[in-house]
Amino acid sequence: MSGFDPGWLELREPIDHAARNAEVESVVRGYFGERASLTVVDLGCGTGSNLRALAPMLSPRQHWHLIDGDPMLLAEARRSLALWADCARDADDELHLDKGDRQIRVSFECADLTLRDLHFSDINPDLVTAAALFDLVSLEWLERLVAASAQRHVPLYAVLNYDGLAHWQPQAPLDERIVAAFNRHQRGDKGFGPALGPTTIDAFSALLAKYGYRVWQGDSPWQLGGGDRSLIRALTAGFATAASEIEPEMVEAFAAWADERADTEGAIIGHQDIFAAA
Ligand SMILES: C[S@@+](CC[C@H](N)C(=O)[O-])C[C@H]1O[C@@H](n2cnc3c(N)ncnc32)[C@H](O)[C@@H]1O
Predict the structure, then answer these.
(1) Is 114 near ligand 1, meaning CB less than 6 Å away?
(2) How many C-beta atoms surround the C-beta of residue 35 within 10 A?
(3) Of 15, 196, 244, 263, which has fewest CB within 10 angstroms of its CB?
(4) How many Cβ atoms sit within 10 Å of the Cβ of residue 245?
(5) CB under 8 Å to 13, separation ≥6 — which residues?
């Protein structure tokens, strides 16, 4: 349904984990403090990367409810989480994991988030989280989520929201034009209506203020170097393809740019993390 390639998600996972803002993460850890157990909903979970990053910082006993619209990604999440854990057991529809001294119960839900009720009253979560999702959603959908969460005083933790900044080293003449076209493409419909794209942070912050949330926010840029060649190649090709949809007459020039950029020294892609408590 979503067209997110599991290979792409696997490639970005270590970079995503390294990029997550440590200060915001430590606020999240402190907020839940000594709680013995916690229920977390992860929206647009993909193959489970967000759980693998966050669960080791949270309570000894956790229940994660993973939601995604793509059944293939959910199947891959189940498989890769079982491999990630020290010990994994299937229990009815759930997966029970031991990881270090954490016991993590995982349930999986295949659902279209544009249609699902966002109060999650069937799950009663202590935290709703999402990684690399909110730049795909519309303002209308995000307001529905924030309003529903505020009603139940549920904290929100959204990481790796693309903020529109992208730099390659060394710079090349077409960089600025490609990034501008890519950023316009990010505002297109990704299934939720017109996507927030690079405006996500401003829009999300304004909504959180409107619904009375306290907010902690920080940068979480991808800092890619020589060791990240495969990711740089895939990323650069993705920028060129998206930019070409906005400027079709530039398709050849953008493809040539991507070829040259594939071996670039490094790249920085800007993201922001936000934790909000009601
Ligand atoms: C950029 S990926 C991020 C995946 C994962 N959170 C991660 O950090 O690796 C976005 C995810 O959102 C899911 N998604 C996109 N639109 C969706 C929708 N309308 N309903 C449910 N899931 C959706 C995709 O299937 C994909 O797994």
Answers:
(1) yes
(2) 13
(3) 263
(4) 14
(5) 47, 49, 52
CB 47 within 8 A of CB 17: no
Tokens of 121: 């009253």
SS3 99: strand
231 near 269, Cβ under 8 Å? no
pLDDT tens for 135-190 read 999 999 999 999 999 999 999 999 999 999 999 999 999 999 999 999 999 999 99
Helices within 164-265 (DSSP H only): 175-186, 200-210, 229-246, 251-261
Ligand 1 proximity of 70 Cβ (cutoff 6 Å)? yes
> Ligand 1: which of 133, 140, 200, 231 to mutate, judged by most atoms within 8 Å of the beta carbon?
133
> Quick one: which of 224, 213, 187, 68 has its CA closest to 131?
68
Look up the pTM and report it: 0.97
Atom of ligand 1 nearest to the CA of 191: 19
With a 6 Å cutoff on the Cβ, whether 163 touches ligand 1 is: no
Record the tokens describing residue 116, joined without a space. 């699902």
Atom of ligand 1 nearest to the CA of 2: 25
Q: Exposed, middle or buried by CB within 10 Å (0-12, 13-18, 19+), for 202?
A: exposed
244 and 251 Cβ atoms separated by less than 8 Å: yes
Distance from residue 253's CA to the centre of ligand 1 (Å) = 31
Judge contact between 263 and 198, C-beta under 8 A: no
Calculate the dihedral angle through the C-alpha atoms of 264, 266, 270, 271, rounding to the nearest 10 degrees.
110
Number of other CB atoms surrounding residue 111 within 10 Å: 12
Max CA distance (Å), the chain: 58
Q: What are φ and ψ of residue 5, in 5° steps?
A: -75, 125
